[in-house]
Specification:
heterodimer, A: about 900 residues, alpha+beta, 4 domains, six-stranded mixed barrel, 27 helices, about 50% helix, B: about 120 residues, Arc Repressor Mutant, subunit A, three-stranded antiparallel beta sheet, 4 helices, elongated
């Protein structure tokens, strides 16, 4: 009624008044009795007897007041806790089941929350996009953007700012030891675009008109502490990047990360501002066909991404008409605006959502299991419930109390789950592959906890529903007549429990099939021939400087670089334990390319009909590369020491490239240009077997040029032999720096490590799914065990009669097993249908196995059925051992 | 938060009857709890005995429903007592319950008559 009734002092006064009223009533009854001639002591006793239990009357009367629900809730919770304390075994199993479910769900959710749900930490993140150019006609994605295109976009009025982003390694010198840093060349408007400020100093002036590098850099908090010891007087200090001098104008705050697509770009440490028109790209920047890797932009406020996309589509169409030579219609050039967050998260989204779905299924199975336990308990407590109803307990009240019990259970489970999560947080975070975007944003925030609490409540209501509704349908008379028997398993209830077990089986089957498909994919991938031999190979990187003024470049051409390469190789071969040594460009490093640029060449084939752009991955290597990595020659010849800057340009291609570009021809002797503007033709002299150096799961066209003919700044040193990684790295550093003391030596890794790291994300999601599937299987077998043993105990009497009448023990056992089998098979059929749907949804996560792989489906269904039978075997044994004499006494 | 009364059972019928009886008693003027018990007993010639355990909850419920109002006063022998009186809403409800009750007792009286010959 009125809100006032909720106030404690109002309630207190009303309670006092009620007590007064009842006391007056008693007094009046007493004095009436005295008036009728009873003795005072008799009168008092009789009046009280007639009145009944004062406390009870008072409580029932108070029940009629508003706001009792809260008090009753507290009371119900207290009763629930007491009931749970009284059956600790049941409570432990139920709480742990829920704890595992909620803990795991919360863990995955915290990752989903940080990576997918949280807005990027910039003002108005919804206006931020990455601009991506695709050439759909030739299946080329993310091909980059040219300077004239960038200028067109900036003038379009669609964006407030557009900034190219060009990630590269660089050598930071002018310190005690050359450091390799990740640098991101950006337009001066980059920080204004993101809307972030420096913690120390300033960022660039967004209107800075300098055509080339403006000789200012902003550095990350990490490099400020690592390389400069957190020096507060760092502003204005001059450092060298590739022998060019820059002065530091600002230090970014600790949490700031470049919103990049790769892990390397996200760990950018130095930002130089670049006009993208001056040196070193003065001539290059005039052309529409020369691309830097990409750009980010802030859309003008008031425009949605869809609006902006529409206007950009129109712009693209008009540019295509204006420059038909640069944008041939067949290539279908398009510009897509991708929300910046989506760009960072990229393909992790699908894996994460898939994991979240899987963990949700585990939670659901856990709930079903607890529902089953509760139902079993409800039938054990049937008599208690019947008695309580017979004594006047309202069914609604009992229902509510049972629901409270299950919600208390699941909230306890949630608390335990989250507590475990907190305890294991450190080791769990270490499991997450470092390549996962936004990994440092993962926290168990209040939001995550709130969701965990919500999940607990919903889960509790979910599994509490069946037993709670059961109370309402309790046939009190029948229950009370079953004297001495505590159990009241009605047919309906048994049906519910069987249904729950079937559901559990179906859900587990879905999970197990998903896990099996992933496991097979992983297995196939792991055993897919690499095409190279990673054993005993160590890879160490270095990088030659790339000064802004080409005249200062010591290694401008292959001819300049050759002496360096020869000298380094000579020195490396003298190191103890080294059997072979080779050098190559970063694109020659198997399965690990931090730089996304310059690896893909747009090539021109001689006598090729058609104007569509053709792309291959280009690597520059020394002749010894193929032998060191064990890549076999199939046709023609390998590169030779004699192929140098004075001899004709040659290249070796891989099988996929031969098949793709010269499908029914001999590629040997064919001529190609390695860029659209290359002056000279390169002749194909050999074909090598495919080495899966680009991607683990598919062959990619690769062209290998000689490093003596095609210079490269990003160098990888390969060593095969017996040595300890730490020592060899130090020795390599000494040797390289004794040739040129300004070169950084970094990125050491054994090829074995690189190969296994390339599957890290896949491995983790496969392992997690497998873990979830095993949990599900365990829960489902517990479920079927529970139902069948309950059935056996219910039918003890019947089994006794059968045995007494001469039934064979084998028949009894078969009967029990048949029951279990029927449940398992029903579940399996439902599960197979569900698994078909799920496996198609996850087909992009699979490798080498079809989403409808009959073997996986069959084996998993059979295994699940076998586990079900095993779980039923224990109660079946018990059924067989029933002693008819004992059973018949029931 | 309005609380729903327990759903139907045999208790509901009794409560309905008790509510009706209380309202009927209060028709003759305000009365306190003990007075209501006494009056019901006297009027029904000791046939109906109302349990205090039912009476006070019923009174609280009727107050909540607005059918009766309670106020504190003093009794004939100077006791502080809470008396209840019918409200306008209570009168309307009493009229409705009364006609329902009369229908019911007519019907039951009808059932008591021996059946007319030839109808079996």
């Amino acid at each position: 009624m009125s809100l006032l009734e909720w106030l404690p002092w109002v309630r207190e006064r009303r309670t006092r008044e009620l007590a007064d009223e009842l006391r007056t009533h008693l007094e009046m009854a007493e004095s009436d009795r005295i008036a009728r001639g009873e003795s005072p002591s008799d009168a008092a006793a009789n009046a009280r007897r007639e009145f009944g239990n004062v406390g009870l009357v008072q409580e029932i009367a108070r029940d009629r007041w508003a706001g009792m629900s809260l008090e009753r809730l507290v009371q119900d919770v207290r009763i629930a806790l007491r009931m749970l304390r009284r059956s600790p075994g049941f409570a432990t199993v139920a709480v742990l089941t829920i704890a595992v479910g909620i803990g795991a769900t919360t863990a995955i959710f915290s990752v989903v929350d940080a990576t997918l749900l949280h807005p990027l930490p910039y003002p108005h993140p919804e206006q931020l996009v990455r601009i991506r150019d695709d050439l759909r006609g030739v299946g080329a994605e993310d091909v980059g953007m040219s300077t004239p295109e960038w200028q067109d976009l900036q003038r379009s009025g669609v964006f407030e700012y557009v900034s190219p982003t060009w990630f590269d390694d660089n050598n930071l010198t002018g310190l005690s030891r050359p450091q390799r840093v990740g640098i991101l060349s950006v337009a001066p408007n980059y920080f204004a675009l993101l809307g972030v400020k420096a913690q120390l100093g300033t960022t660039f002036d967004p209107a800075d008109p300098a055509p080339g590098y403006n000789e200012q850099i902003v550095i990350s908090d990490g490099v400020w502490r690592r390389a400069f010891g957190g020096d507060p007087k760092i502003l204005g200090r001059v450092v060298q990047l590739d022998s060019d001098s820059y002065h530091i104008i600002g230090v970014m705050p600790p949490g700031f990360q470049a919103p990049g697509r790769t892990k390397e770009e996200r760990s950018t440490e130095v930002w130089p501002a670049f006009g993208f028109v001056g040196a070193p790209v003065t001539t290059w920047s005039q052309l529409r066909s020369n691309h830097f890797p990409g750009a980010i932009a802030r859309i003008t406020s008031g425009l949605t991404i869809a609006d902006a996309q529409q206007r950009i589509d129109a712009l693209v169409a008009s540019l295509q008409r204006q420059y038909p030579a640069d944008y041939p219609p067949r290539s279908e050039w398009t510009i897509r605006l991708i929300p910046l967050k989506e760009n960072i998260v990229g393909d992790v989204r699908q894996s994460l959502l898939f994991l979240f779905g899987a963990v949700g299924l585990v939670l659901l199975i856990g709930c079903v299991n607890v529902a089953n336990l509760l139902l079993a308990r409800a039938s054990a407590r049937g008599r208690e419930m019947a008695v309580r109803q017979a004594l006047g307990g309202a069914p609604s009240r009992l229902t509510r109390q049972l629901l409270t019990e299950s919600v208390v259970l699941s909230v306890l489970g949630g608390i335990v789950g989250v507590a475990i999560l907190f305890a294991a947080k450190g080791s769990l975070v270490r499991l997450v592959p470092a390549s996962l975007p936004r990994i440092n944003e993962i926290t168990i925030s209040w939001g995550v906890l709130f969701v965990a609490f919500g999940i607990s409540l919903v889960a509790g209501a979910l599994f509490g529903l069946a037993p709670a509704l059961h109370v309402r349908r309790l046939d009190i008379t029948r229950v009370l007549k079953l004297e001495g028997r505590g159990s009241t398993g009605s047919g309906e209830q048994a049906r519910t429990r069987r249904l729950l077990v079937v559901a559990e089986f179906a859900l587990s089957l879905v999970l197990m099939i998903a896990a099996t498909l992933l496991l097979r994919s992983f297995w196939d991938l792991m055993h897919a021939p690499l095409g190279f031999d990673p054993q005993r190979v160590m890879m160490i990187r270095t990088r030659l400087p790339y000064p802004n003024d080409p005249k200062e470049d010591l290694y401008a051409t292959a001819a300049d670089e050759a002496p360096f390469v020869h000298e380094v190789l000579r020195r490396l071969r003298t190191l103890p334990g080294v059997e072979e040594a080779a050098l190559g460009s970063s694109s020659s490093v198997p399965l690990n390319h931090p730089e996304q640029d310059q690896n893909v060449l747009r090539v021109v084939l001689e006598n090729h009909a058609g104007d569509e752009p053709l792309f291959v991955t280009g690597a520059a290597v020394v002749p010894g590369y193929f032998h060191l990595l064990g890549i076999p020659l199939l046709r023609g010849r390998l590169l030779a020491e004699a192929d140098n800057d004075r001899s004709p340009l040659v290249a070796v291609i891989n099988e996929t490239m031969a098949r793709t570009y010269w499908p029914n021809e001999d590629p040997l002797g064919k001529r190609i240009k390695l860029s659209t503007r290359a002056p000279a033709w390169t002749t194909v002299v050999g074909v090598v077997a495919d080495a899966r150096t680009e991607a683990r799961d598919r062959g990619v066209p690769v062209l290998y040029a000689s490093i003596y003919q095609r210079s490269t700044k990003h160098l990888a040193i390969f060593l095969r032999g017996r040595f300890t990684p730490a020592t060899i790295t130090r020795q390599v550093r000494e040797q390289v720096q004794s040739v040129n003391s300004a070169l950084p030596v970094f990125g050491e890794a054994t090829l074995d490590e690189t190969v296994s790291a390339s599957l890290a994300v896949r491995r983790l999601s496969m392992e997690l799914i497998a873990l979830f599937a095993l949990t599900a299987l365990l829960l489902a077998s517990l479920g079927i065990y529970g139902v069948i043993s309950y059935m056996v105990s219910e039918r003890t009497h019947e089994i006794g009669v059968r045995l007494a009448l001469g039934a064979q023990r084998a028949d009894v056992m078969a009967m029990v097993l048949r029951q279990g089998l029927r449940l398992a098979l029903t579940g399996a059929v439902a599960g197979l249908a569900g698994a078909l749907v799920v496996s198609h949804m996850m087909s992009s996560l699979l490798y080498g196995v079809s989403p409808t792989d009959p073997l996986s489906f069959g084996v998993v269904a059979a295994a699940l059925t076998a586990v079900a039978l095993a779980a039923c075997y224990v109660p079946a044994r018990r059924a067989v051992r029933v002693d008819p004499i004992v059973a018949l006494r029931y | 938060m309005p609380r729903k009364d327990p759903p139907t059972s045999c208790i509901e019928l009794l409560q309905g009857t008790l509510d009706f009886i209380i309202l009927q008693t209060l028709r003759w003027g305000p009365r306190h709890g003990y007075g209501i018990v006494q009056m019901i007993r006297a009027q029904s010639r000791d046939t109906l005995q109302v349990e205090t355990g039912s009476l006070y909850p019923a009174l609280q419920r009727l107050v909540r429903q607005g059918a009766i109002a309670a106020e504190w006063g003093t009794s004939d022998n100077d006791r502080r007592v809470r008396t209840y009186r019918l409200t306008a809403k209570g009168r309307t409800r009493l009229a409705a319950e009364r006609s329902k009750w009369e229908q019911l007792s007519d019907a039951i009286a009808g059932l008591m008559q021996p059946p007319a010959v030839g109808e079996t």
